[in-house]
Specification:
mainly alpha; 0% strand; 91 residues
Length: 91
């Protein structure tokens, strides 16, 4: 499997995760109303999210993507500096 195929599969998984999340958000009941989804359907949705996440992780490993480091679309690391704030002592 080449990088182009992996990228296409990653795009498909990303869209599937987003669409499934939107469906869940749209059918989530407001303020104490009963959920229109059955318990089995809710579990199936959770299983789908888990499978999507697992496959995304496998693809990242195949591409050598280090998930412990942030990924920036332009490939450039930010040049921000960490600033320590010191709380002034009470007088």
């Amino acid at each position: 499997m080449n990088t182009e195929e992996l990228s296409k599969e990653q795009q498909i998984l990303r869209v599937m995760r987003k669409t499934l999340g939107n469906v869940v958000r749209d059918v989530t009941p407001l303020g104490g109303r009963p959920n229109p989804l059955t318990g089995d359907t809710i579990q199936d949705i959770k299983d789908c999210f888990a499978l999507i996440s697992e496959r995304e992780k496998e693809l990242a490993e195949q591409l050598g993507f280090n998930q412990s480091q942030p990924y920036y679309q332009d490939g450039e690391l930010p040049s921000a500096q960490v600033i320590n704030f010191v709380k002034p002592a009470k007088e």
